[in-house]
Amino acid sequence: MTPAPIDFDIHSIPARPAKGDRAAEPEHLHLDVRYLALAPADAVEQISDMDRFRRLFEDGGVDPELVAMTGSFVSPADGRALMRGWPDSDWMPLAEFVEEMVGSFETPQTWLLDLDRRFDRLASSMRRAARRAGAARGDQAAGEETTRQLVQISIYGDKQLSFTTPKGVQVARGCQGFEQRITDAETCRSVADFLANLSPDAVARGADLAKMVEEGVYKAHMNFDPEDLRSSVVKDYHALRAFYREVVARGRSVLVTRD
C-alpha cells in the first residue's frame, strides 16, 4: 500500500538582518514552501534528479521580498527542530535540504501569491464584470475565452508545477491539496493589463451572491450582507491588482498557491 503524501511546510522565514540589528529586519517577509508535498521517506531519499529539484528553487526561486500581511515565522533552523520532533526521523534529509535551499537564494525571480479561497468570490465577480464590459463594447463573443483565461490565471495560476520522483510525476500541491501553478513574466503582464482595465465599480456590480451560490463558490451559501460582500470583493480586487502591478514593475513571474 502506497502511503499518502505528507506536506512539509515551513510557513515563512524572516529576512536575515545584520547581527543584533533589529531595525534592519523588514516586516512580515513571507516564504512558503508548501509545494514540497512529497511521498514519505523512501521517495524523499530516492529522488532521482535532485539537481533539477534544486534548480526549481534556485533558478526560478521564490522571492523572499514578497510581503504578506499575516503569517507566523519559522526560521530554517526552527524548521529542522520541528522535523526532529516528528516520529519519523527519516524526514531529516528533506529538512536539511530545505534549510540549505532556503539559504542559497541570490537572484530571486519568482514571487509567491498565496491566496485564501475567498478569492473564488473575486473570480466570480470579475468574470461577470468583464463579460458586461465586453458586451458594452460589442466584442463579448470574441473576448469571452481570453477573459475567462485571464481571470483563471490571475487567481489560480497558469502552468501546473510538478516534479519527478522514482514513483512518477508528482503534481505540486499545498497543504489543502490545491494544485500550485507558475505564471511566467509575460503572462503576468497580460494579467496586470486585464486587471487595470476593470473598474472597481464593475467588479462590485459583479458580486452577485445568488449567482455565486449557483456556481458553488466557496462559502457563498453563507448569509452575506450584499454590501459587505461587495466591499470584500473590491478590497481583494485592489490588492490583487496592486500585486500584479508590482510583479510587472520588477519583471517577476509568480507561483500561485491556495489554502
Automatic annotation (TrEMBL):
<dbReference type="InterPro" id="IPR015068">
    <property type="entry name" value="DUF1877"/>
</dbReference>
<protein>
    <recommendedName>
        <fullName>DUF1877 domain-containing protein</fullName>
    </recommendedName>
</protein>
<dbReference type="Pfam" id="PF08974">
    <property type="entry name" value="DUF1877"/>
</dbReference>
<feature type="region of interest" description="Disordered">
    <location>
        <begin position="1"/>
        <end position="23"/>
    </location>
</feature>
<dbReference type="InterPro" id="IPR035944">
    <property type="entry name" value="YfbM-like_sf"/>
</dbReference>
